[in-house]
Each structure stands twice: as C-alpha cells, then as structure tokens.
Amino acid sequence: MTKRNQIADILRLKDEKNVLILAHNYQLPEIHAVADRIGDSLELALAAREAKEPVIVVCGVRFMAETAQILNPGKTVLMPVPDAGCPLAEFLKPDMIKNAREIYPDAAVVVYINSTADCKVLADAVCTSGNAVKVVKSLPNTRVIFGPDSNLASYVASLLPDKEIIPLPGDGHCYVHQRFRRIDLLDAKCDGVSVIAHPECPEEIRSSADFVASTGRMVEIVKKENKWYICTESGMLDRLSSLYPDKLFIGDEGAVCTEMKRTTLSNLVTCMRDFSGEIVLSQDTISGARKAIDYMLNLNY
Predict the structure, then answer these.
(1) Would you call 226 helix, strand, or coil by DSSP?
(2) Distance CA 216, CA 196 (A)
(3) 37-92: per-residue pLDDT in tens?
(4) What average pLDDT does range 23-34 have in this prediction?
(5) How many CA atoms lie within 13 A of 186 on its CB side?
(6) Of 215, 268, 282, 300, which sits most exposed with the smallest number of CB within 10 A?
(7) Helices marked H in 163-282 — which ranges?
C-alpha cells in the first residue's frame, strides 16, 4: 500500500472512529502529516487531558501514552507500537527512589516526565525539560532527588544554587543528546549560525549554546534568527523546517531516537483499524501518578 493510500485510510478511520492522534516532535514527517496535535511531552500531556474524543492514539514512546491515560482515564489510549520505549525512562527504577528516600528523608522527589508510571507514583512532582526549574524552585524542600536525567539535573542545579539537587541515578542520560560535540557548535557559530541546545545535553554543550530550551520552546525561539544549529533529536529538524521553510536548520543527522522512529503509517493504520496496542494501567497507578503530574500542571496549566 502506498503512503498516499495509508494516509487516506488513517484520515478515514480518524473520522469514523472519532480518534485524536497525538504525535511527538521527534516522529517521522508522515506521522506529523496525519496528527491532530504535534508537540513536546508537556504539549501532548495537555492535549490528552483536554481530549474530547473517546480514543487517543499516541505516536511516541510508552511513557507518553501512560501519561495520556493517567490524565484522561476515561478514554481508550492506544499506541501503534506499544513496546516502543524510552531508554532514559528505563534508567530509573522504583526501588532507586525508595532507597533514596531512606537516605534523604528530608528531600522531595521530582521525576522527569520521561519516566515510567510506576516511578511517577513515588514522586512528589513531575516536570518536563521546559518547566523543571520552575517545578523544583516551587518546592519548599532544600534537597531534591531528581531523576532520571543527570544532565537535566545539572541544568536545574546551575540555575537554582540554593537547592541541593541529587541526581538519580547519577549516570542517567539520553543517548541521543550525548552525541553532540562542542567543536561542531563552535564551527556553526563561526559561520553565523545560532545554536539551541536541549536541557538533556551535557553541560559543555549547553554552555556553548546561545539558548537552552525544550523542543516546544524551540519552536518559538527560532523566530529570532534565520540560521540555526539544533542540538536535539534529528526529527526536530524536519519539524522546524516544515514550520519555517525560509529558515536554515542543521544539526547532527545521526542524532536519532530509534524507538521514536518505530511508528510508521502502516502500524498506525493497524492500530486504528483494530484498536490494538491499548495502554492499560491499574487504578492505583493512575491515581498515584496523577498527584505528581497534577502538582506540575497546577503551577500554571
């Protein structure tokens, strides 16, 4: 079946079955073409919370679909590739949080949205890369256990010197954001190219960038200049190029999240046709994780 026919089937099924399709910024361009909403983890979470459609299809990785069900448990939440996971999220295990709480009983626990639902149940708050500083700052605790991304933890610590940030685990990271090299950023700057780095990048990359921002915020920042080096997953280059075709976006073409790229038009058709790949969480998990997510959302959203 051609892509054109697959897209036609998806659009037909979307109308027939009253489905809302959410797609992360890192998804393939053809997935973006059929999505109702495209965005970062926070934007997709808000879209899931507000969804009126009875069925939500999440084109992304598993923690995103779990978040959608937590925020709108009355809906059916589907994933075209239900075992598409996030290696970063898998760094953090529930037992790590329990052990850290015993060692630091006075500390709050903040988990990045890139974490499993079971870890969110044990947290005081959830954050995204775009609001991590705000969430941590809002907590009364001086000590904050933060996981699973140690680079994001160091970014938060650099902006909140009055807080003691305890990364959990200490070596948690996104392999995609570890790829970027400072020399490439400096070369780009010599050519008059501005640089944006994701907070998941190492400190030497963040400190060499002109801006540090989540993918959602990148969409706004790039309006300022015409030539950009983007330090995040390569799918964001496609996303920004589609939004601003008159601007130049470059980056590391090898910065690819293989799990994000597993979602195709073919398995999206199957998911919508058969209602396959349903995400089902226990009520205890939903209610427990919802408290930590609501802490974040109640700050502003």
Answers:
(1) coil
(2) 12
(3) 999 999 999 999 999 999 999 999 999 999 999 999 999 999 999 999 999 999 99
(4) 96
(5) 5
(6) 300
(7) 182-190, 203-208, 215-221, 235-243, 265-274
pLDDT tens across 83-93, in order? 999 999 999 99
Mean pLDDT for the chain overall: 96
Residue of 54, 57, 3 lying closest to 268 (CA atoms) = 57
Q: Which residue has the tokens 């994000």?
A: 260
* pLDDT score of 1 more than 80: no
Q: What domains can you pick out in the chain, each with its CATH number?
A: 3-84+260-281 (3.40.50.10800), 88-175 (3.40.50.10800), 182-251 (3.40.50.10800)
End-to-end CA distance of the chain: 41
Quickly count: other Cβ atoms within 10 Å of residue 140's Cβ: 5
Could you tell me the two tokens for 74?
């009355």
Q: Please give the model's pTM, rounded to 2 decimal places.
A: 0.95
| Sequence letter at residue 38 | I
Dihedral pair phi/psi, residue 257, rounded to 5°: -85, 105
Joined together, the tokens standing for residue 203 give: 């400190």
How many other C-beta atoms lie within 10 A of the C-beta of residue 95?
9
The two tokens of residue 45 are 């979470």
56 within 8 A of 22, measured Cβ to Cβ? yes
Among 138, 135, 144, which Cα is nearest to 168's? 144
144: nearest Cα among 94, 107, 101: 107
Rounded Cα gap, residues 15 and 223, in angstroms: 34
Sheet-wide strand order for 211-212: 211-212, 194-197, 227-231, 248-251
